[in-house]
């Protein structure tokens, strides 16, 4: 195994163990809710967003212990969005991460509550950080980043726009707005959380935020290309350009993301996570 793959595997194991430890036990009431929370989180997710927290923070020299809560919090937010996105009122999906979706395995009411509880737990993790881990300003900055990424100017806003524009023929710019909000906001937030713990200066924060935006869009275009190969549906990005153009756009964004990292002495970790996220 290469060094970077070892790093990714180690951090993935770490976040899985932490999540297992911090999620309420299913023997504790409300048992069904806790069982469902554990079911949706503790499985074979790629843990891309926690890996971005660790890679960014560690690139900037933050000790790993200062990154754990943020890494777990962002994964909880991500899983909440998947659970709600799978609901009949949203995408109405039967499978997620190779398993029956939460509302299929349990029931719709439980799936709604699971999403709500995971989101609350994510904020609790950051709010409960001790002074020995992060100072109050860093804690508040992290809360602000998470709140904004989740809300109507972030992930939920992206989902709302997708609904609002569903019946219209939208242009490429509108499609990119949806992607930036729905997928990009949480990916960018992951990087910013790591940057806060790593005490990034303003210039570094700006570069990392830009890196996050490129990575988020590239990740979504890649997902669109995979979907196209799977069932030949020209949805999302591929409703606006052909496969060759979309692949070129993906290359271009990935290249730009890579160039942004050049100002960092140690860029191997972030490059490694980028390559893990985007397999060209
Ligand atoms: C309904 C609150 C609410 C939000 C819906 C973010 C979102 C908006 C929905 C997520 C569902 C989705 C299919 C988003 C597209 C981006 C994408 C490919 C997500 C899957 O992320 P991965 O590949 O998944 O990192 P794993 O399971 O590996 O974590």
Give structural attributes:
1% strand; binds geranylgeranyl diphosphate; 280 residues; mainly alpha
Question: In words, what does this structure look like?
Answer:
The chain has helices at 3-22, 31-41, 48-59, 68-85, 102-105, 108-127, 136-150, 155-164, 172-197, 202-231, 243-260, 268-277; strands spanning 95-96, 99-100. It is mostly helical and 280 residues long. Strands 1-2 form a two-stranded antiparallel ribbon. Strand 1 and strand 2 (99-100) form a beta hairpin. The protein starts with a helix and ends with a helix.
Bound molecules: geranylgeranyl diphosphate
Strand fraction band? under 5%
Helix content: 55-70%
Question: What is the strand arrangement across the widest sheet?
Answer: 1-2
Enumerate how many helices there are, as a single number.
Answer: 12
Number of E-state strands = 2
Order of helices and strands: HHHHEEHHHHHHHH
Largest sheet: 2 strands, antiparallel
Low-confidence stretches: none
The shape, in one word, is globular
Radius of gyration: 18 Å
Q: Residue-averaged pLDDT, rounded?
A: 95
Kindly report how far apart the N and C termini lie: 20 Å
Global structural class: mainly alpha
Task: Please specify the SSE layout and strand pairing.
Elements: H1 3-22, H2 31-41, H3 48-59, H4 68-85, E1 95-96, E2 99-100, H5 102-105, H6 108-127, H7 136-150, H8 155-164, H9 172-197, H10 202-231, H11 243-260, H12 268-277
Antiparallel strand pairs: 1-2
Helix pairs in contact: 1-12, 2-6, 3-4, 3-9, 3-12, 4-6, 4-9, 7-9, 8-9, 9-10, 10-11
The structure holds geranylgeranyl diphosphate.
């Amino acid at each position: 195994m290469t060094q970077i793959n070892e790093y990714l595997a180690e951090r993935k194991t770490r976040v899985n163990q932490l999540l297992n430890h911090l999620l309420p036990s299913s023997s504790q009431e409300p048992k069904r809710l806790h069982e469902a929370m554990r079911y949706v989180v503790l499985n074979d997710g790629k843990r891309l967003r926690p890996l971005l927290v660790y890679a960014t923070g560690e690139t900037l020299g933050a000790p790993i212990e200062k990154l754990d809560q943020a890494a777990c919090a962002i994964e909880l937010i991500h899983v909440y969005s998947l659970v709600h996105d799978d609901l009949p009122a949203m995408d109405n999906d039967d499978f997620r991460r190779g398993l029956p979706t939460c509302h299929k395995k349990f029931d719709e009411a439980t799936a709604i509550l699971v999403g709500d509880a995971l989101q609350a737990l994510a904020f609790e993790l950051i709010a409960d950080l001790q002074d020995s881990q992060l100072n109050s300003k860093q804690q508040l900055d992290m809360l602000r980043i998470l709140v904004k990424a989740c809300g109507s100017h972030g992930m939920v806003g992206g989902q709302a726009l997708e609904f609002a524009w569903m019946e219209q023929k939208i242009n490429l710019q509108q499609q990119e707005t949806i992607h930036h909000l729905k997928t990009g906001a949480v990916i960018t937030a992951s990087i910013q959380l790591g940057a806060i713990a790593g005490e990034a200066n303003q210039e570094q924060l700006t570069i990392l935020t830009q890196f996050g935006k490129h990575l988020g869009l590239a990740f979504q275009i890649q997902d669109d290309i995979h979907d196209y190969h799977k069932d030949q549906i020209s949805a999302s990005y591929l409703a606006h350009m052909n496969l060759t153009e979309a692949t070129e756009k993906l290359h271009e964004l990935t290249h730009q993301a890579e160039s942004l990292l050049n100002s960092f002495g140690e860029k191997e970790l972030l490059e490694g996570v980028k390559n893990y996220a985007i397999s060209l």
